[in-house]
Every structure is written in structure tokens, then in C-alpha cells.
């Protein structure tokens, strides 16, 4: 497992991670989200929805990994979208993601 995924588990235990469409959208709108991660195997509609929202509200977005790996990293079944609410965790994960070839899009 990559360090970025390990950091996601750590953020979950610290209570600094949200998952699920509605919670993540709400956190983007309220400027609570510091980083949004969308699974690489998410539907085109989901990718577009979160790309548009993150661009509008100027929230960094990462598209990568797959839903099974994201889910297992946070201790839940498949997860398609995650939001980090702590800038420290967002910075650590962004730094690690830049070294990871599994990520296809970083904004």
C-alpha cells in the first residue's frame, strides 16, 4: 500500500476525512474540504461533477487509485469520493501522490 493510502487511513482515525457524494459536496460548498480524491474507476458523470465543483470552489482535486483501494485504506467497503478536512493531511497526501504513478489527474 502506498504512503498516500496509509495517510488516508490515519486521517480517517483522526476524524479528518469524509466520504460519500453528499457529504463531500457539502464540504466543498462550505470550504471545509481541503482536498478531494475521486476514484479512477468512478463514472464519467461523477468525475465531471466533482471536477466542476472543485474548480468552481477552488478545492484541489485528485483522480486516482480505484474504489476498492480507497475503501480498504479507510476501513470501509468501496469508496468513490473522499474529502480531507485538514490542511496538514491534504499537504502530506498531495506530496506523496506526486510520486505515485497510479494517479492520473491532479488539479
What is shown here, in short?
This protein is an alpha+beta fold and 107 residues long. It has one domain (3-106): Ribosomal protein L30/S12 (60s Ribosomal Protein L30, Chain: A, 2-Layer Sandwich). Helix content is 49%, strand content 19%.
Major beta sheet summary: 5 strands, mixed
Class of secondary structure makeup: alpha+beta
Question: Helicity, in percent?
Answer: 40-55%
Which CATH architecture?
2-Layer Sandwich
Q: Please tell me the overall pLDDT.
A: 90
Strand order of the largest sheet: 1-4-2-3-5
Please indicate the percent range of residues in DSSP E strands (runs of 2 or more).
Answer: 15-25%
Coarse morphology: globular
Number of helices: 5
CATH superfamily membership: Ribosomal protein L30/S12
Low-confidence stretches: none
H-E string: HEHEHEHEHE
Report the end-to-end length measured between terminal Cα atoms: 23 Å
Write down the CATH class. Alpha Beta
Model description:
The chain has a single domain, classed as 60s Ribosomal Protein L30, Chain: A, CATH 3.30.1330.30. The chain contains 5 helices and 5 strands; from the N terminus they run αβαβαβαβαβ. The longest helix has 14 residues, at about 45-55. The chain starts with a helix and ends with a strand. The chain is of the alpha+beta class and about 110 residues long. About 35% of the residues are buried. A 5-stranded mixed β-sheet has the order 1-4-2-3-5, sandwiched between helices. The protein has helices spanning about 5-15, 20-30, 45-55, 65-75, 85-95; strands at about 15-20, 35-40, 60-65, 80-85, 105. The chain is globular, with a radius of gyration of 12 Å.
Amino acid at each position: 500500500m502506498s504512503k498516500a493510502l496509509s495517510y488516508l487511513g490515519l486521517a480517517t482515525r483522526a476524524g479528518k476525512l469524509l466520504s460519500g457524494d453528499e457529504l463531500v459536496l457539502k464540504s466543498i460548498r462550505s470550504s471545509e474540504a481541503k482536498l478531494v480524491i475521486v476514484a479512477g474507476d468512478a463514472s464519467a458523470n461523477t468525475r465531471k461533477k466533482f471536477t466542476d465543483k472543485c474548480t468552481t470552489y477552488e478545492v484541489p482535486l485528485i483522480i486516482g487509485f480505484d474504489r476498492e483501494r480507497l475503501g480498504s485504506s479507510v476501513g470501509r467497503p468501496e469508496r468513490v469520493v473522499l474529502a480531507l478536512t485538514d490542511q496538514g493531511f491534504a499537504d502530506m497526501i498531495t506530496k506523496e501522490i506526486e510520486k505515485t504513478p497510479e494517479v492520473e489527474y491532479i488539479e
